[in-house]
Structures are given as C-alpha cells and as structure tokens.
Specification:
With 684 residues, the chain is α+β, with helices and mostly antiparallel strands. It contains 21 helices and 24 strands. It is elongated, with a radius of gyration of 50 Å.
C-alpha cells in the first residue's frame, strides 16, 4: 500500500492479495532444493563408496565433470588423470592404440550393444601386468553428457570359480551358449532333479547327439532318452552316484558306457557341480566327454604290461632253462673226458664214453644254434637260399636217421610217401626245410613214450600254385588246448609243467614257424591231451629262377692236385682250434701257416705273396679279424679270406663281407662246409 495525508490524517491506499498458495510453492521449492541437495550428498556418498566406477563427461569438450575413486582404481591410474577423456585414453591405452581406437569407434557408433564391453584386458604401465575391466557407456546427447561405468574384474577372471559362474551365465543366455558350444563334440549341460524326484536337462549343447544320441529338445522335460542308452551294467551305479552327489552336494564324477543303437559301445566321463535351488530342486552344471579312445589305450597298455610281465617271466624261465641246457651237456663232456683219462679202460668203455661226449656236444651245439637262429630271425637277417631238392630222398634220410632213436625207446617210426617218383622234386630252402622236419620228428619221439610216430606229405593244388603239406603224428602226451598256440612262441617250453617239459631250448617250434612262413607256408597243431598230437606244416613251390645248387646235392670230392697248389694262412688264437683246423686242412693244403693275432696276419701277408687263402678268426687279441682284413685288402685284393667266429650273431656275416672277407663260417667248424667253401673259391 501507499500512505498519504488527508486533513492531517494519514491514510493508506492499497490492495490485499492472498499469497498463501505462493508461499506454499516457495516452501515446496525450498524443501525440494534441500531434498535435492540432500539426495546429491547421499548420491555422491554412494558413488564414492560404490565398487563400480562412475564418470560423467561432456561429449563436446571431453571434460570430465564427475569421476569417483572406484573409476580411477578400476583403471589403476591416479584420479587426477581422469579429468579429461583425451588425457585418460592416452595414459590408459597409450600402448594399445588398436584397442583404444576400437573403443572410441564403439562409443561413437551410439549402438548400446557396442558400447558395452564384458572383458577388456589392459596392461598396467608400471608393473606391465594385465588386468581386466568390464565397462559400459550411455550417451545423453541433449544434455551433452556421456555416463560411463567400469568394474575391475581381474580377480574374477583369474579365479576359476568365478570363471565357471561366468560360463554358466553364458550358457543361460541361450543363443550365445549354442554358438559357443556348436563346434564342441562333447556335451556341456545343466541337469536338474525336481523335488518330486524326476530328472530333466534344461540346457544341453549339441554334443548331446554325439554322447547320448538324442537332441537337446528331447531331454527338456524327460531324462528317459539318456537313461535308456546307459549300459545296463552301469545304470544302477550312475544313479547311485547322482543320489550321493545330491544328498551331500558333492561333485558328481563317473565313468560309464552308453549303447546307442547302430553304434559301438562308447565310454563317457561325466563331471558336474551340484547346487540346491530355492524350490528344493538340485541342479548340476558340468560336461560329458567321450573317453572311448582313452579307454582303448588304457586296455592296450594293460595288455602290453601283462604281455611284458609274461615276457619277462618267460625269459627268466628261458635263462634258467638255458643254464640247464648248457651245463648238463658240459657236465657230460667234462665228466666223461676225465673218465677217458683213467688207465685200464676197455675199448668198449672208451667207445661208450666218446659216444656220450659226442652226444653232449651235439646237444650243446643245438642249443647254441637255436639261440643264433632266433636272433637272426628277430633281426630280419634270415634269407631264403633256394635249390631243387628231392623230397623223397630227404624224407628217407630222416627216416633212417631217427629210426634207431625211436626203436631204442620202443616206438614204431612210420614214413608214408603218397607221391609218385616224378612228383618228388620241389624248389625250396633245403636247410630250413630240414630244420622244420627235424625239429618236429625229434619232438614227436621226445614226447612219446610208447606207440607210433608217423610222418609223410601230400601235394596240394591251391589257387593255381602247388603246395606241399607235411604231417608228423604221434601217440604221445599231447598238448593242452590252452597251450596249442603258445607253443609256437619263443621260450614257452621253459614254462610248461615239469611233467611235459623235456630237454631243449624251447625255441625249436618258434624257429620252425618263422621258417615255414618265410617259405610261403604255415605251421599248426591238432592235439588231445593224453592221446597225442599231429603237427602240420606247408611250404610253397618257389620259382626255379631263385634256385641255386644245394650243398647236399653237390657233395665235393677231394682232389689230389689241390694239395700241391694251395697255401693257407690260419689266423687263430685258440690252441685247440688250431689243432682241429690243421687236421682238417692237412689233406687240402700244400702249406699251412699258423699265427695268433691280426697284426701277425697282416705282417705275414705282406712278406709271403704265395698265400692263396686266409682263414681269419674274428675275435683276436689286439687287432681283431675285421681290422686285419681291412689292412690286408689295402695291398692284396686277390687273396681269398674266409671269416670264422664262435659268436655267429645276427649281422656278423654282413659285417665280415663289408670288411673285405669273401665268405663266412661259424664255429664249431663243419668239415664238409669248410672244404666246400675252400673249393668254391679256389677252383674259380
């Protein structure tokens, strides 16, 4: 109002307005402002204490108008470096510009999906360690603002348990889970037991088709498609393991078989972690892996281990048997040699002792030869030396050879020839053929106490080729059915019960089997325990072009003029061997020179140019036979050098030839073979 004076009276002219509503509005505004200030204080307090980092910046200038400590901590930088977007990016991503550019592109795209990053790896400036953040941005362009949030998830990434939860969360995302697991052949699943006890599989990767032969949709409401393919012998155990896991909330691990129609039985390994849900359900998160191949490898390893243990056991038995097989004839040789030294022995006694010594020596030589043969077979050094032989002649010879031995035991020996005279020839390896037949006839007599041993053969036309099938039948002790395949394995004879085992190396049948297969045939047995056995073996006709003259069919007769021409140098350090070789060579050589070392052999060979043949021992003191041969070959290419050794192991012959020898002979030296070799080279 406005005052004025009328007739000395002060008057006010004015109006009165009701401002109650205005006052109420003002009060409301004051309260709203106070509340806003209070809320801002509370919000700031919340943001400052929040583990999530927040930052607000102006889009146009990049100026950061708000940032909390959690934001700076998440990026492992001082908060003062967060006042400007450019400064922030340069510090955090200075060494990772490719990532920085991608993030900026994502932000500028204004695409909400691109403005979220689940896992971002960042290299810390000082320690160079990698840490991880998850971040998102929201653009408020009308307000010229961008709101950013960030969380440090380094501990989660590094913690296996947190990773598993992240994986489970990814599985629950449906489409992402299917994309993630599409190329995984095994099964990733969530498997649930309802409160009523029924089971279903709410989540399963496509690997369920490989593991259980059904689709993810088939098991959404029912466990039946899985239950029906679990192997019946494993089903109860699997259910029991599931129940235990549910009761104790313990890891479920199990290996079981599945039998999907039309497929082979498969082995599955399953592992999962249980969790109890609010509604009382138990759910498992885990995976199933096909471990069939691993199981096969395990089975093979177990079999290999058992086989190795069996092999070790057999070898131990074999070594014990070899000790017996060598010591026994040695005992006969040494014992009866001492008896021969006794005075006043009758001629009959001397003859008897000499016969025992010879038989003991033959037995020991057979054992050593068996060991040498099997070593050459295993090394792949045995070769076929084919020639045409007369089968009937060979069979008749063996019949005559073994007949006295059979008659001595009271056994009847029978030989049956079913072929006409014109059919009795075959091209094969005579030595290996004789070895097989000799082994089988000898075994038949050895394991037969009474009755008959019969052997023979027949010609069989098979697949446009001719094949000879031989048989050796006896009425002996027979072989248990479970041993009939094993007897052709090495060392097995040493493992047979004492009632069946006889003297021998246990290698004869293994050698015979190898020889038969080398000659294109096979060997097998038909036997009944206590009634006898029939051994069969077959050999094929070899091409005639491979044949070479047989030593047996080309016996070499001595010639008187050979002695007048041949000068032989014998390199041998063993006195007994020197005496034996001298006796063998005295009818063949004009002059025999004896030396005991490789060095002497080289010196004599240089001085005496009339030496025609050198019989070179391999194991010599100082310079060995191989070295001596190489030295001699440097100045004499023509002299004949025949290596001789008592070792006779696989590869020795090849080694001797490589050193420069013409040929090779094993000890104890066979007189006929030595004469054959000398004349073979001297008469060329």
């Amino acid at each position: 109002s406005q005052p004025r004076t009328i007739n000395n009276v002060v008057c006010w002219d004015g109006i009165e307005v009701d401002i109650t509503k205005q006052k109420l509005i003002e009060d409301e505004l004051i309260r709203a402002r106070d509340k806003a200030e209070k809320n801002e204080i509370q919000l700031n307090a919340i943001l400052e204490k929040s583990p999530t980092g927040f930052a607000i910046n102006k889009i146009s200038t990049g100026e950061v108008t708000y940032v909390n400590k959690a934001f700076a901590d998440a990026y492992h930088i001082p908060i003062e470096l967060c006042t400007n977007v450019s400064t922030f990016f340069e510090y955090v991503y200075g060494d990772q510009m490719e990532m920085a550019n991608k993030i900026l592109d994502d932000i500028n795209s204004n695409d909400p999906e691109r403005m979220k990053w689940e896992v971002v790896p960042i290299t810390e400036k000082k320690t160079k360690e990698i840490f991880y953040v998850t971040a998102s941005n929201m653009m408020l362009r009308k307000l010229d603002l961008m709101i950013s949030t960030v969380t440090d998830i380094t501990s989660q990434v590094r913690n296996e348990g947190e990773l598993k939860k992240a994986k489970e969360k990814a599985e629950e995302s449906g489409e992402k889970f299917r994309k993630l697991s599409a190329n995984v052949p095994d099964l990733i699943f969530q498997f649930t037991r309802r409160p009523d006890g029924s089971y279903y599989v709410p989540i399963a990767s496509d690997g369920i088709k490989n593991v259980f032969g059904c689709s993810p949709e088939d098991v959404l409401d029912s466990f039946e498609p899985i239950a029906k393919v679990i192997h019946p012998e494993d089903a109860d155990r699997v259910i029991s393991d599931i129940e235990y896991s549910a009761t104790h909330l313990a890891y479920f691990t199990s290996e079981f078989r599945v039998q999907i129609p039309g497929r082979e039985i498969q082995w599955i390994y399953s592992r999962s972690t249980p969790e109890k849900l609010d509604d009382g359900s138990i759910t498992w998160y885990g995976f199933n892996v096909n471990i069939t191949q691993r199981k096969k490898i395990e089975d093979e390893l177990i079999k290999a281990k058992e086989k190795a243990e069996e092999s070790d056991r057999l070898k131990s038995a074999f070594l014990a048997n070899m000790s017996h097989e060598i010591r026994t004839p040695m005992n006969g040789i040494l014992g009866f040699t001492n008896l021969l030294l006794q005075p006043d022995l009758s001629g009959e006694e001397q003859e008897k002792y000499i016969d025992i010594i010879k038989k003991s020596g033959d037995r020991m030589l057979t054992t050593v030869n068996d060991i040498i043969d099997i070593s050459r077979i295993e090394a792949g050094l045995e070769e076929l030396n084919a020639s045409e032989i007369n089968i009937n002649e060979q069979m008749n010879y063996l019949y005559s050879f073994f007949k006295p031995e059979a008659e001595k035991k009271g056994i009847k020996l029978v030989y049956k020839n079913e072929l006409a005279e014109k059919e009795h020839g075959i091209v094969t390896d005579p030595d290996k053929f004789n070895s097989i037949l000799t082994n089988l006839i000898k075994n038949a007599i050895k394991y037969t106490e009474k009755g008959v041993v019969e052997f023979g053969y027949a010609l069989i036309n098979k697949d446009q080729t001719q094949e000879l099938k031989f048989y050796i039948k006896d009425t002996g002790i027979g072989i248990p059915k479970n041993r009939q395949k094993a007897i052709f394995d090495r060392f097995v004879q040493a493992d047979i019960e004492d009632i069946q085992a006889k003297q021998g190396s246990g290698l004869g049948l293994a050698i015979s089997k190898a020889y038969a297969e080398m000659m294109g045939g096979n060997i097998w047995v038909d036997s009944k325990e206590g009634k006898g056995s029939t051994f069969y073996f077959s050999i094929k006709q070899m091409p005639v072009s491979k044949a070479k003259p047989s030593i047996i069919d080309n016996q070499i007769k001595e010639e008187e003029n050979l002695r007048e021409k041949l000068n032989i140098l014998v390199v041998e350090d063993d006195e007994t061997s020197q005496q034996f070789i001298s006796l063998v060579l005295e009818k063949l050589a004009n002059k025999i020179i004896m030396v005991q070392s490789g060095l002497e052999a080289v010196e004599i060979s240089k001085k005496d140019t009339e030496i025609h043949l050198i019989l070179m021992d391999i194991q010599l003191p100082g310079m060995n036979g191989y070295e001596a041969t190489k030295e001699i070959r440097k100045f004499n290419k023509e002299v004949i050098i025949i290596a001789q050794t008592a070792y006779a192991l696989a590869g020795d012959k090849e080694k001797a030839i490589e050193a420069g020898c013409n040929d090779y002979i094993t000890k104890p030296i066979n007189q006929e073979e030595l004469v054959y070799l000398i004349k073979k080279y001297w008469e060329k």
